[in-house]
Fold these 3 entries.
Entry 1:
Amino acid sequence: MNTKLQTEITIEDICDGFVYNELEGKGLFGLSGKLTIQPEYQRNYIYADGKRDVAVIESILKGYPIGLIYFNKVSANNFEVLDGQQRITSFGRFVTNKFAIKDENGMEQYFSGIAKDKQEKILNTKLLIYECEGSESEIKEWFKTINIAGVPLNNQELLNAVYSGQFVTLCKEEFSNSQNANIQKWSAYISGSVNRQDFLERALDWVSKGNIGDYMSRHRNDNNINEVKNYFNSVIDWVSTVFTDVESEMRGLEWGRLYETYKKQPYDPKDISKKVKELYADPYVKNRKGVFEYILGGSIDTKLLQVRVFDEATKKSVYAKQTKVAEEKGISNCPLCSIGNNTNKTKIWKLKEMDADHVTAWSKGGATEKENCEMLCKTHNRAKGNK
Ligand SMILES: [Zn+2]
């Protein structure tokens, strides 16, 4: 890979012909049309948060360096931004009056409103730009290894860079587009940010059963994303049909796995809704995130709910009572040891050798209260299971 350092290109040069696509949240072109700011392999613009974009402008005004910028020289007169896209889009948007900064009096000022000398200081700032020339694979390999201005690429952003092409472009149009009207519905089940590729990552994770890189490599040159889209929509449709109420704990669950495991089972949405409400109202359920899988699996695996356990005071008091009665009768203080032919028939266990058990199972309505607590030896408690 050949590199050449350019030190005479100014912000004004870059901003000549700057185009920002509000819809897609992308800085597109600059440098009189010679520069593509957001090539396919680049991440979405994530600096538009009123902090990082403002920090870029403040750095420039104070004369601080904003760091190296890398261009990929595509042809004699065409460049793509390899690294620096967030910074370029920030000053490009500022110079075209897309956001304001606060002046020394705390007043919001757009570019057109700041003093002439400040405008000129920004426009005349010279940038340190490396022009790189190399094969696609060289450039991509190198791109993989750089970190961009303190925000490292996450896994999906890296994969998008490595497998860039038609397929990734179509995927991003669908799943990484904050203007997509479906995002709100999807957000009920998927956590993360559209711009950081979290929705795309989920869609690819589901369809590929966890083998995202492999899937992207095989489909890299596809000119449609039907399979990803259809599968993703099937999962979302299934969840929203089975669970008619949207609860905040649904966000970020492994819906792809749950869909694969339970899609063939029939469910009555009304019945499901009733069960969800009951479990949400149950003070003994500690893990609400487990409610959905618990219900899908037939309300059996209570471990998913992390049902509240008996506290130490309750255990001690029940232990004392049980042990006193057992000693009077000359039998084991574990009720299950005391019956039948058992070598431990008369054994008095220590408190630490026993565990608390629900007499009436929690799943059958038994409360986690003293009256429903029974101490069993550890072996019997385990055998009875967490039912
Ligand atoms: Zn026992």
Entry 2:
Amino acid sequence: MAFAGWLRRAPKPDRAEVAALKDGLRAHLALGAEDEITVSEIACPACGPDAVETVALVMRRGEGTVALKSPHPLHDLASRPDLLATFGRDEALHGR
Ligand SMILES: [Zn+2]
């Protein structure tokens, strides 16, 4: 049902889940206290009508911003540290 699909994706990510994922990625990527990271969830029509991906923008001090993507929803990534290894460059995820 289209409306149910809209409801499922519309809410903003849970703040606690965002914080948990950022902490997990900080450890996974060995980021320092002065490095910054943001995470957000996006729809990916290229991967399917209901496909949701999570994007992490990693800003290591003194370096450019690097975008990493995972093919999993933020909710799953926040509770499954084993999924953090699925974050990679967009080319790896989409073959471009
Ligand atoms: Zn995609």
Entry 3:
Amino acid sequence: MRGSVVSRRTALWGAAAVLGSGAESRLRVVVVGGHPGDPEYGCGGTIARYTGAGHVVTVAYLNRGERGCAGQSEAPCGELRTAEAGRACAILKARAAFVGQKDGEAVVDDPHYRQFDELIAAERPDVVFTHWPMDRHRDHRAAAALAQDAWVRAEGRFALMYYEVAEDTVGFRPDDYVDITGVESARRAACYAHASQRPDHYYPAQTAITRWRGEQSGHAQAEAFARHARAVGARLLP
Ligand SMILES: [Zn+2]
């Protein structure tokens, strides 16, 4: 069992060695987020780096954030935030996908594990990013649990990385850093595409984090990631 995982890891490291050298070496990346905006805030620069290098990124939103518009009922709010997510993904040259769970009511049980495992398997990812398991929001913790289950089901065939989002992530301990200085404008535009979500409040908070991560890694701004202890990953980052 362990041996097969190790051999697959070796294959992944082999893929990383030719990263960026042609279409056959394109990575397939999935970024899982609880709500529209989470992947853009936590990984927007890294997504832009991946797609800028020709890799393929799918952003999988657990729900449509339909409870997240002040004074609006769920249906129009969900439509608005779906459109915002579409614009953000267009800016980052990623594809938006929706898992179909309900905002604030993420279900983690056998049928939902299976549904999510199938979704991830269909993407054939090399790398999956998801929320930190100790995030404050229950939908984020559910996204972490679902992604980890998909990783277990896939017998570790993809790298599993955790990201941080302002005001939600606590106790985060990063392993790896991605320089996002050169893609800051794309990250900003993708976050501001979520105009219903007070970007003037949240974007500076996230930028404070990426400046701090930059100080730790020698860049003006960086996104930081924690690697699953049993997963490869650092060399699959842009
Ligand atoms: Zn969220």
